[in-house]
Amino acid sequence: MYDQVTMKLNVEPLILSALREDITSDDVSTNSVMPHPQAGEVDLICKQDGIICGLQVFSATFTLLDPSTKVELYVQDGDAVKAGQLMAKVYGDIRVLLSGERTALNYLQRMSGIATYTHSVAALLEGTKTKLLDTRKTSPNNRIFEKYAVRIGGGNNHRYNLSDGVLLKDNHIGAAGSITKAIAMAKDYAPFVRKIEVEVETLDMVKEAVEAGADIIMLDNMSHEVMKEAIEFINGRAQVEVSGNVTKENIAKLTDLGVDFISSGALTHSAPIMDISLKNLHAV
Description:
The protein is of the alpha/beta class.
């Protein structure tokens, strides 16, 4: 759950921006059929099984439009929900309920979809020491929502943004001239509390990264056999992350490696939305 400071500084401005995108002058449809204030209520219904996530954002969408709106929740983030389940009721001015509906559902459906997909992938790593990580492959301006959903689904967050940690990828190495030079420059520039991670694609690169003192070595798009050789060479001298087109369909094939982390961009860029609706709107 977002704390009050995070909500005010980082979450609410993004929700307001989304509402402004959807209402550039007025809500023509709503104002046509509801020209005057009218108290009403509507049901939040789950239409498929999954892990619910984003209820705080869903609620804030309506209260930002009208602080007097009330949201009565019957579930909480992280709960497993079933098709047909009544998850909440929203009470307020019918005009607010209609105008905020799509934006509120867009957040809730997207976040719940990510949490549900992440939960299914994380289940495949149960019983291993390997942690499931997300990536920065998130929708622009939605990272705070999508990475939160990964955590609710049972995954872990990789670095949040470019200021959060050092990850030297192929183009950074190309810019520096070599892995050794890139690591040396990162150690000289970055605060000492930052770990240095290096992305490698060959055994020679693995050896150079270990000798240069990388803290974490990411094995990117390697064959299973080469990854085993790389892990044997690293031999605990650095933490190991496996990455590269990891999905629910193939992650189980990686569990025998015993690595520290497996990262998957699919958690955020390929998770389908969860089907959720607001139904039974009526005046009270």
